[in-house]
Write a structure and sequence with these properties.
This protein is an alpha+beta fold and 397 residues long. The chain folds into three domains: 100 residues, no CATH class; 155 residues, Nucleotidyltransferase, domain 5, CATH 3.30.420; 59 residues, no CATH class. Helices cover 31% and strands 17% of the residues. Strands 1, 2, 3, 4, 5 and 6 form a six-stranded mixed beta sheet that branches. Strands 7-10-11-12-13 form a five-stranded antiparallel beta sheet, with no helix packed on it. Helix 1 crosses helix 3, helix 2 packs across helix 3 and helix 5 crosses helix 6. The longest helix has 17 residues. The protein is elongated. The N terminus and C terminus are likely disordered.
Length: 397
């Protein structure tokens, strides 16, 4: 047989797990794992007769132990692990306790030992993480305070086309709001799916994302066409600091599970890949216990927002003490006989300016600060990171 030389047992376990999903035929498994159909039937037969231990060489250890866990419970633990290969002992025990309250299930530590003995536990390498130097975002106190949105790293499907998974989640409950496979990660493809989520779940107060397109840009205030749309809906864009994915750690952790369970290996085409995403969403929200939630599932904590998606975008308005200018087709505003560049993402939109010194004006789009217009140089300069700010006469405190 042509199992991978690195770890044949892992390949056998993967095969059994894929079979238990009831998504593949024996022929498909044989083609993917590069073995004969006869070999697939052999391992499936051994598993059905004697469980996972039948897939490796017989051990020379004693066959009975006076304090061992009953075989029926061991089988349940193993079967649950095979169906949810990326769940750890805590999740497995929590799930079994909810679905079978009459059985006395072993502790997670015992469960971990059983799974390790059966070769079902992968060793994890400890990673050192540099703690963030700032805490730019507050804690979420209720559902829809903050959503996270991102594109999970693209990968090639069986038809060689790239899949870009667009994901959205509620930071308070960990509820996975959407996972949609797209062929292009641009504004035109992203906005309709974001609108679909808003219509189904309502509007959050803030949307957290990284600094990449289409969520942000290198322009003034990091603003993009998508963030302009969010601001007009009164949703505050939050951008994590470059090089600090831990500031969106809850969403990033979900991405790791998403990759392991839906794209390892990738599916044949987008239709099959989306089926895997949809299955993951259902399991993640309604079955998978989360340690951070006290082993509850996200669906038990999430509820839709009371802020309804409007059929018409509200007009951007400013207080009476703001000077308002329209952004022209070249991305500039007319200012005191000249032109000042703002952003092409704001073409056709009104921006507000409030004077803070003899030569400095704060520039905003709706509630969102863009920068400071310095009349001495005729340009809008970016706002300084509040944690690095050096106070000067023209800097708002």
């Amino acid at each position: 047989m042509t199992w991978k030389e690195t770890c044949p047992m892992d390949e056998k376990i993967q095969l059994i797990g894929d079979w238990l999903k009831e998504e593949y035929t024996v022929t498909e498994l044989a083609e993917y794992y590069k073995v004969s159909r006869k070999t697939v039937y052999k391992w499936l037969g051994r598993y059905e007769e004697r469980g996972i231990s039948a897939l490796e060489d017989l051990s020379h250890a004693p066959h009975t132990h006076p304090n061992s866990t009953p075989p029926g419970i061991v089988d349940s633990l193993i079967n649950t692990k095979l169906k949810h290969k990326n769940w750890g002992p805590k999740k497995i025990v929590a799930w079994l306790e909810k679905h079978d309250t009459e059985t006395s299930w072993p502790a997670p530590s015992t469960t971990g030992s059983i799974l390790k003995k059966e070769g079902l536990v992968k060793k994890r390498h400890l990673k050192r993480h540099t703690p963030p130097y700032t805490e730019p975002f507050g804690d979420c106190e209720r559902p829809n305070d903050v959503w996270s949105i991102d594109y999970k790293g693209q990968f090639r499907m069986g038809d060689r086309r790239l899949c870009y998974p667009l994901t959205m989640s509620d930071n308070f409950s960990r509820y996975l709001l959407a996972c949609q496979g797209l062929f292009h990660p641009n504004y035109e493809k992203t906005q309709p799916w974001l609108e679909r989520a808003f219509r189904e779940y309502g509007l959050p107060l803030a949307m957290r994302n990284d600094n990449g397109a289409p969520f942000a840009s290198v322009g003034l205030g990091g603003i993009s066409a998508l963030s302009v749309w969010l601001i007009k809906l009164w949703i505050r864009p939050e951008r994590i600091a470059p090089g600090h994915p831990e500031q969106n750690g809850r969403h990033e952790r979900m991405h790791r599970s998403l990759k392991e369970e839906t794209a390892n290996p990738p599916k044949a085409n987008m239709e099959e890949q989306q089926k895997a995403f949809d299955y993951f969403i259902e399991e993640y929200n309604t079955e998978r216990p989360h340690e951070a939630l006290g082993q509850e599932v996200p669906a038990s904590l999430y509820e839709p927002s009371r802020r309804i998606f409007p059929e018409k975008l509200p007009e951007v308005e400013y207080e009476s003490w703001f000077t308002v200018r329209q952004v022209r087709t070249n991305g500039c505003i007319k200012w005191k006989g000249g032109f000042v560049y703002i952003s092409e993402a704001l073409i056709g939109e009104p921006v507000g300016l409030k004077q803070i010194s003899d030569s400095a004006w704060v520039v905003r789009f709706s509630f969102y600060p863009l920068g400071i217009l310095d009349e001495r140089i005729g340009k809008v300069v970016p706002l300084v990171n509040p944690h690095k700010r050096k106070v000067s006469p023209m800097c708002p405190v």
